[in-house]
Design goal:
The chain is built from nine helices and 14 strands. It has about 250 residues and is an alpha/beta fold. The strands form three sheets. It has an eight-stranded mixed sheet with strand order 7-6-5-8-11-13-12-14. The chain has a four-stranded antiparallel sheet with strand order 1-2-3-4. A two-stranded antiparallel sheet has the order 9-10. A hairpin with a 6-residue loop joins strand 12 and strand 13. It starts with a strand and ends with a strand.
């Protein structure tokens, strides 16, 4: 694996590495993103960040998507590669992440707007846009530059309500959690229902402890739609694009 770019800022080390056709981002020792255009679903955690989009009522065509926590931009590439999305807004508080995404990752920037901003501040001030699908993937490295990832925003009723208000009537929200225990503590039924969501499901990847929680506004989850959209997607792309996809979908 070759390091193609690196720098340090305020004691945090940033590296872009290449392994074959894959490009990877490491920040503060945390493996943030990987992208390979020939294998957009390559058996990594970012696959299951993308998958909740297939629950959307208008998938595989989406109007607006919001990604909170851009990293290198792998999930933005997956959305553009596998779906038809008119507008994608990516928000990250780290300007270096946005520079890295532009230079090393993003393959179709024409429909992508990158914003340097704290996620909470952006959601509060972004009063005129509403989204089909929101991805909340907010993690940062530990201050000691270890490989531990830290969630900077608590997932509570107030944060969930703020995100709910940015969704269209049938919108879908995906949130990355460290593990199932963290997700279940945060997303108790009385919490997500108080925030205006109907129900939840979650994805797990067999190689990771992370859980991607999916919250449904409006009509709630439609597992049949998800399955049909996934089958159509797999049929539309070469086997190499989807053969490594691994996930567990758990309805709760």
């Amino acid at each position: 694996m070759a390091v193609v770019w690196q720098t340090s800022k305020q004691g945090v080390n940033y590296q872009v590495r290449r392994a074959g056709n894959s490009v990877r981002l490491y920040t503060g020792g945390v493996f943030h993103s990987q992208w390979n255009a020939s294998r957009p679903l390559a058996g990594h955690l970012w696959d299951v960040l993308f998958l909740p989009a297939l629950f959307c009522s208008n998938a595989p065509r989406l109007d607006r998507v919001l990604v909170l926590g851009v990293g290198g931009g792998a999930v933005i590439n997956a959305l553009n590669h596998l779906l038809t999305v008119k507008h994608i807004t990516g928000v990250d508080f780290d300007p270096l992440h946005l520079r890295i995404a532009k230079k090393h990752f993003l393959q179709n920037p024409k429909n992508v707007r990158l914003v340097e901003c704290d996620a909470q501040a952006f959601v509060v001030r972004d009063t005129n846009e509403f989204y089909d699908f929101i991805i909340e993937d907010l993690f940062c490295g530990a201050p000691d530059d270890s490989s531990e990832a830290i969630r900077p925003i608590a997932v509570d009723v107030e944060w969930l309500q703020a995100l709910n208000e940015k969704l269209i009537a049938q919108g879908v929200l995906a949130i990355n959690f460290e593990d199932e225990a963290q997700m279940r503590r945060a997303l108790r039924p009385k919490v997500y229902k108080a925030a205006g969501f109907q129900n939840r499901a979650f994805f797990r990847h067999p190689r990771y402890e992370n859980v991607i929680a999916v919250l449904f506004k409006g009509e709630g989850k439609n597992t049949k739609r998800f399955t049909e959209n996934l089958q159509s997607l797999c049929a539309a792309f070469p086997t190499a694009a989807t053969r490594d996809l691994r996930y567990q979908l758990i309805n709760t």
